[in-house]
Specification:
The chain is an alpha/beta fold. It has 5 helices and 6 strands. A hairpin with a 2-residue loop joins strand 2 and strand 3.
Length: about 160
């Protein structure tokens, strides 16, 4: 049975041609579909501030990287490392979904594995190839009820797709 999504608690902090940053209760959501730049990435700090009010020091982070996402620039990689260092103490669980196949997805998963290694030991972090595996893992690892959040997260991520 589908449960009504928690759409009234979804807050979009930034939407650009490259991606969308949002928060839903204690979840930080990032959907990438272009060349994410410094302002796009730094908007995650706003999402973390809102999510931490919902559940301090127990945030769950979910990032979806669409195949249209460009490989991060050196500056974007530096910003990502900074953000991980700034926020890792408050994150209980983090899932990254790299959609797509082949060299691009494999190379990006390697970069993200490095980011996760830098992010500290307090949080659980995994990289996935699809949302169907990532969302249940994130909810189970974060101690959240699937019945409450699974549909809401999937609906939120769907609403964060690029405008066509």
């Amino acid at each position: 049975m589908r449960r009504a999504p928690l759409t009234d608690s979804l807050t979009v902090h930034r939407r650009s041609a490259a991606g969308c940053v949002a928060s839903l209760d204690h979840f930080v959501l990032l959907r990438c579909y272009g060349a994410m730049d410094r302002p796009d990435l730094l908007a995650t700090l706003d999402a973390f501030a809102v999510a931490s009010r919902a559940r301090p020091n127990a945030i769950s982070s979910l990032t979806v990287i669409d195949p249209s996402t460009e490989f991060p620039t050196e500056d974007a990689r530096r910003v990502c490392i900074q953000l991980i260092e700034q926020t890792h103490e408050s994150v209980r669980a983090g899932a990254t979904v790299v959609l797509g196949d082949g060299f691009w997805a494999s190379a990006l998963r390697s970069v993200l594995t490095t980011f996760n290694a830098i992010g500290g030991r307090r949080r659980s972090a995994r990289t996935f190839g699809d949302l169907g595996e990532a969302v249940p893992w994130l909810l189970d690892t974060g101690g959240d009820a699937r019945a409450t959040y699974e549909v809401a997260l999937l609906d939120a991520l769907e609403s964060m797709r690029p405008a066509t």
